[in-house]
Amino acid sequence: MDLYLTTGFLGAGKTTTIKDILNIFKDKKVALIINEFGQTGIDGKILADITSDVHEVAGGSIFCTCKINQFENVLENIIKQNNPEIILIETSGLSDPSSAYQVLKQDKFRSINYKGCICIVDALHFNKVIHTARVAKKQVRISDLIIINKIDLVNFVKLEKVKSLIYELHPFATVEQTSYGVIDPSWILDLSTTHKDNHEINIKDITLVSYEIIIDPKCSKNELAKLIESFIEDSYRVKGFLQLKDGKFLINCVGDSIIMEEYCKEINENKLVILSSGRLPIGKSLKHTKELYPNILLDIIR
């Protein structure tokens, strides 16, 4: 069975790209492992509409010492119980996947053919994250295929700058470019890894932090937008499902962009997941937001 690993920093478009990869393998039996840094799984709910064989590992990077056993158990169960033709892993945007091959080369995973690591890069925000998040550099350096996404949002000069930064980190990288996460099937089907197996299992990156905030369902879309704007500069990513006065929505924020998409399924917990860095004052920002909007932001959970 073939295994593909997808990585990329928060908001690069991994979930959208995963949808396109799943379509490439629509005639194959595919198992999907979703890894989210926060405790609340969001991407898994989105992708469950496309494939039923979805397995979540939340609350940290699957290649961190704190989660590696859970990941290995999930992978073993998939092999024994499901016997898929394709295994597709979406890592957390805060994950360092450099130890992937070290884990997969174990004898118990000998039936797996590791095809390689695909890194999705956000053309619009890459220049910022590459200088503020060290894990973003690692994601590029160990990948076998790097896909620059959202090229429709940047001009030629900025796109060339992104390419230059990538080649500085990975001079021999295979680099492709796209918009809306659209994938040329040949990029995936022709992928092969260089088997970089000289890495150890990662320790937890203490510079990464996760918060959850509980939102009052009587809140309107406009009120929510103002609330998010009060702390968004100190975050990497804001995401979640919310019941609002205007209806049900999937909230997705990257950079200063706030997107609210209508959502038709049941929402069990009215909260947003916020991912940030310990180097940013996100805790203080959220506390200030709570003071500004005490009737909307009901609780902050660390």
Could you please describe the fold and organization of this structure?
- This protein is of the alpha/beta class.
- It folds into two domains: 2-189, P-loop containing nucleotide triphosphate hydrolases (Rossmann fold, 3-Layer(aba) Sandwich), CATH 3.40.50.300; 208-301, Hypothetical Protein Yjia, Chain: A,domain 2, CATH 3.30.1220.
- Helix content is 30%, strand content 27%.
- It contains ten helices and 13 strands.
- Strands 3-2-4-1-5-6-7 form a seven-stranded parallel beta sheet, with helices on both faces. It has a six-stranded antiparallel beta sheet with strand order 11-10-9-12-8-13, covered by helices on one side.
- Helix 7 (156-169) links the parallel strand 6 and strand 7 (175-177).
- The N and C termini lie far apart (39 Å).
- The model is unreliable at 198-204 (pLDDT under 50).
Number of strands: 13
How many helical stretches? 10
Major sheet summary line: 7 strands, parallel
Radius of gyration: 19 Å
CATH topology of the largest domain: Rossmann fold
Give the N-terminus to C-terminus distance in angstroms: 39 Å
Structural class comes to alpha/beta
When the domains are counted, the total is 2
Q: What best-fitting shape do the alpha-carbon axes yield? A: globular
What's the SSE pattern?
A: EHEHEHEHEHHEHEHEHEEEEHE
The CATH class of the largest domain, by name, is Alpha Beta
Please give the CATH architecture of the largest domain: 3-Layer(aba) Sandwich
The CATH superfamily of the largest domain is known as: P-loop containing nucleotide triphosphate hydrolases
Average pLDDT, rounded to a whole number, is 86
Question: What percent of residues adopt helix (DSSP H or I)?
Answer: 25-40%
* Spatial sequence of strands, sheet with the most strands: 3-2-4-1-5-6-7
Q: How much of the sequence is in beta strands?
A: 25-35%
Low-confidence stretches: 198-204
